[in-house]
């Protein structure tokens, strides 16, 4: 079974019943962009249960270079899993880092809300995914870093001779500090760059009189982003960018004994966190459900704007079920903000009237029904 869709330059609205296959289309675009699903880490779950394989092909046109590319991802069942093959214009691309981000997409799903309230590891992944799309070196750095953490931990737990242990640890720590400092710096820079647009977008999506979380008609709550490192907490000072490598290395060395006892590496970017605050209060505990949504959307919008500024082309925005999640006023404000910021945008909804696009804006409405895509209907509000 197969389906094909032409995406408009602006908005495409996929609508249909629950389980019709709307999110599936977003997942397909996301897969070509990032080589993974946002729903599952099991590639074989992307293949129809009764089929030997599946593939997604995406034809993209770059207006700046006036060229088109065909990107595709194939999945073939192998044992309990599935093998993934990515190609560009018919040529297999073996390295994931080389394929990632050829098509840039920014995704919002209702599940993103869990990031705000969930564990730090979810937020680290959230930051890294933003960076993966901008800088391939970040993909290889995080892979190498994780490997070094595992190696250092293995040595810490291993009964090798003390001199051999010290030598091995020193080697791993040098690598961890060097790569760790780069990961740390990229995250800090990205957050500081997104910080102002994030506050502005939050005020735009959420802000209106009476929305002050303290109640009443006070000023709109101020949303802020901050990078929190275990290391700076312990040292009780900020570490400037040029000192991050050395500080991380000497701290790793100093903590060998402690880390050995606990059997793991206790400082470094794999232990850090992203702190989102509303008027100085941690949003994870403090924000209402609607505010949490607006915060995550504001972050995604800022990501979109900054990627657009960086590359000259706005990424494809994938919005899963967002309108039914917001109240009508905020939904309208979000869509108005999107009209000015987004390039191509694919939205899903159970009924088209949930997506109240501003007047004069054209959208292509496509009905999704039991895995098939209907004819596009162009709609425009006067
Ligand atoms: N591996 C698979 N093989 C066959 N069907 C699958 C597989 N994985 C998911 N499905 C089915 O695909 C369908 C499409 O799901 P999808 O999440 O795209 O629906 P949706 O239109 O977004 O629904 P909702 O409005 O509830 O979010 C679901 O019915 C789901 O059970
Ligand atoms: Mg869905």
The unique ligands bound to this protein are: adenosine-5'-triphosphate, magnesium ion
Number of strands: 14
Distance between the termini: 38 Å
Which outline best applies?
globular
| Mean pLDDT over the full residue set | 89
Alpha plus pi helix count: 12
The helix content, as a percent range, equals: 40-55%
Sketch the topology as an H/E string, one letter per element: EHEEEEHEHHHHEHHHEEHHEHEEEE
Give an account of the 3D structure:
The structure is a single chain. With 382 residues, the protein is an alpha/beta fold. 44% of the residues lie in helices and 20% in strands. The protein contains twelve helices and 14 strands. Strands 1, 6, 10, 11, 12, 13 and 14 form a seven-stranded mixed β-sheet that branches. It has a four-stranded antiparallel β-sheet with strand order 2-3-4-5, covered by helices on one side. A three-stranded antiparallel β-sheet has the order 7-8-9. A hairpin with a 2-residue loop joins β8 (273-278) and β9. It is globular and about 75 Å long. The two termini are 38 Å apart. Residues 209-217 have low confidence and may be disordered. The structure holds adenosine-5'-triphosphate and magnesium ion. The site of adenosine-5'-triphosphate has 15 residues, from α1.
């Amino acid at each position: 079974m197969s389906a094909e869709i032409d995406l408009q330059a602006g908005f495409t609205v996929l609508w249909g019943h629950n389980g019709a296959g709307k999110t599936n289309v977003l997942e397909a675009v996301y897969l070509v962009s990032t080589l993974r699903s946002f729903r599952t880490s099991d590639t074989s779950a992307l293949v129809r249960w009764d089929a030997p394989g599946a593939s997604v092909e995406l034809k993209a046109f770059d207006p700046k270079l006036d060229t088109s590319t065909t990107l595709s991802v194939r999945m073939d069942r192998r044992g309990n899993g599935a093998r993934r093959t990515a190609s560009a214009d018919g040529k297999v691309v073996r390295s994931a880092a080389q394929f990632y981000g050829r098509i840039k997409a920014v995704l919002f799903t209702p599940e993103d809300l869990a990031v705000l309230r969930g564990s730090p590891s979810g937020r680290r992944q959230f930051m890294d995914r933003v960076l993966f799309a901008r800088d391939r070196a970040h993909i290889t750095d995080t892979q190498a870093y994780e490997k070094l953490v595992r190696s250092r931990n293995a040595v810490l737990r291993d009964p090798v001779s003390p001199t051999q242990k010290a030598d091995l640890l020193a080697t791993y720590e040098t690598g961890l500090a060097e790569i760790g400092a780069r990961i740390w710096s990229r995250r800090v820079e990205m957050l500081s760059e997104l910080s102002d647009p994030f506050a502005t977008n939050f005020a735009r999506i959420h802000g209106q009189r009476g929305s002050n979380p303290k109640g009443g008609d006070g000023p709109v709550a101020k949303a802020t982003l901050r990078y929190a490192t275990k290391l700076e907490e312990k040292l009780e000072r900020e570490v400037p960018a040029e000192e991050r490598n050395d500080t991380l290395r000497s701290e790793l060395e100093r903590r060998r004994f402690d880390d050995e006892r606990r059997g793991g590496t206790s400082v470094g970017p794999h232990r850090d966190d992203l702190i989102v605050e509303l008027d100085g209060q941690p949003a994870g505990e403090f924000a209402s459900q609607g505010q949490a949504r607006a915060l995550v959307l504001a972050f995604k919008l800022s990501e979109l704007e900054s990627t657009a500024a960086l590359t000259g082309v706005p990424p494809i925005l994938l919005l899963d079920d967002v309108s039914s999640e917001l109240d009508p006023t905020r939904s309208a404000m979000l869509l108005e903000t999107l009209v000015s910021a987004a390039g191509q945008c694919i939205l899903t909804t159970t009924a088209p009237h949930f997506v109240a696009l501003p007047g004069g804006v054209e959208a292509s409405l496509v009905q999704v029904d039991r895995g098939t895509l209907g004819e596009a209907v162009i709609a425009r509000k006067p």
